[in-house]
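Schema walk-through. Below, the input block comes first and the output block second. Nothing else is stored per chain. Lengths vary across the set, and this one has 110 residues.
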Amino acid sequence: MMEREFYDQDLTIGTGAGDATETVLTPDRAFGTVQFPAAMTGTKLLVELQNGSNGTWGAAQDAAGVQLEILFSANAVKRIPDGAFGASRMRFKSDATQTAARTFNVHVES
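--- output ---
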């Protein structure tokens, strides 16, 4: 049996409108979770993806064209939607401007 590889990263969303987290490298990853902080302005994280390193990010969407999102719940661990995997890079944006920088943990594995 092949050993699973995993990667944990703490990410921060700044206080500016439209701020995004740092990039999570996701090649060969198939599963992931987000652990939310105790407080966050807004109700969800929006998932964005990038292939290659051309700098263009796009909204991660399901088969119906609906943007993938993760609903906020204080201190909860939530699964990243399966449709977010397959691109080489992933990042997150909040649906609202943060009143303070928010740090949360992302865990991805193969």
